[in-house]
UniProtKB/TrEMBL annotation:
InterPro entries (UniProt xref): RecG_C_sf, WH-like_DNA-bd_sf, WH_DNA-bd_sf
Species name: uncultured Chloroflexia bacterium
Pfam families per record: HATPase_c_4
PANTHER family referenced in this protein's UniProt entry, alphabetically: GLPR-RELATED TRANSCRIPTIONAL REPRESSOR (PTHR30595), SCHLAFEN ALBA-2 DOMAIN-CONTAINING PROTEIN (PTHR30595:SF6)
Protein name (database record): Uncharacterized protein
Coiled coil: none
Length: 336
């Protein structure tokens, strides 16, 4: 295991035992070309080696170049060979609590930080639910469970702002049925508190953030959390909840309680949405009572048989639960 020197500029510290051959120089060239064309780089480097030194992604050691922590994290062929703690562990639970017997998916994401971000965000986006919320007039509003941009920003923040001097811990993400928590090793920097975090701009790993900016993974330093709060507000969610544990910083967002929730998109008819609205207000009901309430609301007669077909569709879609198997069966919304 490589030892990171005790310095306030951890990400520009040379990593003992690593050499220039541990960096993908072709990837550095592609990065330089992209950053230049995107107007995200205005330096004077003419090739990969000059760029690495200029951006503090490598340190000169006589005639040799030694990768820095930031250099290995972004351009390393196998960063975990030297920085085994530089990974993301994602656990997806069926319920709302950590339970080792209730795990849907658990994986440790390695590779460089760009690969980690892309793979983690792809899983979160693919795994969150889509469905409907109903306003007071029972009008459908199709929404995702979480804002996609917030998922990306919080994943980038957890990786980019973590304390890489803490060698015993990885970034941890816990996805529950109703929320997602991101846990990043290291407390907030001195002078920054949970109450003032949106007012302060700070960067524990300035070189890593600059490289991620050049790659379009971050925008201006200090705007990530502002974006998260704004996206949650736009989607009608509660503000993110933040806390410190003494060894890590944790931020979590609670998603929508969706009707007709599913992984992917579920297409419901207006009548099926009306049935959901009725069950949401009334609780448990039998098919005849649902039909009577529905006919009163939509002012259009529908047969009991037609309502039973709609209920069967909602049960098969996992939106509604049927209690009992007789004509006296009742129906309730399934908890999401």
């Amino acid at each position: 295991m490589a030892t990171i020197q005790n310095t306030n500029k951890c990400d520009e510290t040379a990593v003992a035992g690593a050499g220039i051959e541990d960096l993908d120089l072709q990837e550095v060239e592609r990065h330089l070309d992209y950053a230049s064309r995107s107007n995200r780089y205005a330096g004077e480097a003419r090739d990969a080696r000059e760029f690495l030194v200029e951006q503090r992604a490598a340190v000169k050691d006589g005639a040799s170049l030694v990768p820095s922590v930031a250099g290995l994290l972004v351009f390393g062929r196998s960063p975990q060979r030297f920085l085994p703690h530089a990974t993301v562990t994602l656990a997806h639970y069926h319920g709302n609590e950590i339970n080792s017997g209730d795990v849907k998916h658990i994986h440790e994401y390695a590779g460089n930080v760009v690969q980690q971000i892309d793979r983690v965000v792809a899983y979160l986006n693919d795994s969150m639910k889509h469905g409907y919320v109903l306003d007071g007039s029972a009008q459908r509003q199709e929404k995702p469970q979480y804002p996609a941009l917030a998922l990306r920003e919080l994943t980038v923040n957890a990786i980019a702002h973590r304390d890489y001097m803490i060698e015993e811990s990885a970034v941890r993400i816990a996805m529950f049925r109703n929320r997602i928590d991101w846990s990043s090793p290291g407390n907030l920097p001195e002078g920054v508190t949970i109450e003032t975090i949106l007012e302060h701009q700070y960067a524990r790993n300035k070189n890593l953030l600059r490289l991620l900016f050049q790659r379009s993974y971050v925008e201006k330093i200090g705007q990530g959390l502002d974006t998260v709060f704004a996206e949650c507000k736009k989607l009608g969610l509660d503000q993110p909840v933040m806390r410190e544990t003494g060894a890590s910083f944790i931020i979590g967002i609670t998603g929508h309680e969706l009707l007709g929730a599913s992984q992917g998109r579920l297409k419901l008819t207006d009548i099926q949405l009306q049935i959901i609205s009725i069950l949401k207000k009334q609780g448990s009901m039998n098919a005849q009572d649902i039909a009577d309430s529905l006919n009163q609301e939509v002012k259009q007669a529908r047969s009991l048989r037609t309502i039973q077909v709609d209920l069967k569709t909602l049960v098969e879609a996992g939106v509604v639960d049927r209690l009992g198997q007789t004509r006296a069966s009742t129906y309730v919304l399934r908890s999401t």
